[in-house]
Amino acid sequence: MNAVLPALQAIPELTPVSIGTTIVVVLLAIFAARLLFSIAIRVAVVAAIVAGLLWYFGLFQLLPF
Questions:
Q1: Could you list the residue ranges that cross the membrane (predicted)?
Q2: Residue 7 lies in a domain
């Protein structure tokens, strides 16, 4: 018998510790997602500004691709 199978079939008990742990994990995931999203937005804005400046000054022709 597969040793992992009983662990996958285990039903978690609804104890205050398990509920609290779940809430903490969900809050950490939300915080990390918001942080990464804010960084991604800033990178996208800077990239758009740089691309706009390159386009405005016609410097795209100097790039090798």
A1: 17-37, 44-63
A2: no
